[in-house]
Amino acid sequence: MIDIVSANIPIGRILEAAEIADTALFLSRSQSSAITGSNLYVTVGRTRSDLRCGYC
């Protein structure tokens, strides 16, 4: 099943928890101070319209 899901993800694999944690960590640092009032989606290259698939 993971191979089927991974084949349909633009980066070709499922994210690891550390990658999502790294995103949250970046947002907590001063380097991200220019990012305000935004949603940051960690989507592995997929968009909402891509989610109309047989395995979701």
Beta-strand segment tally: 0
Estimate the helix proportion, in percent: 25-40%
Characterize the biggest β-sheet.
Answer: none
The radius of gyration over CA amounts to: 14 Å
What ranges have pLDDT less than 50 throughout 5 or more consecutive residues? none
Number of domains: 1
What class, by secondary structure content? mainly alpha
> What pattern of helices and strands is seen along the backbone?
HH
Shape: elongated
Count of helices? Answer: 2
How would you sum up this structure, described in words?
The chain is mainly alpha-helical. 30% of the residues lie in helices and 0% in strands. The longest helix has 11 residues, at 17-27. The chain is elongated and about 40 Å long.
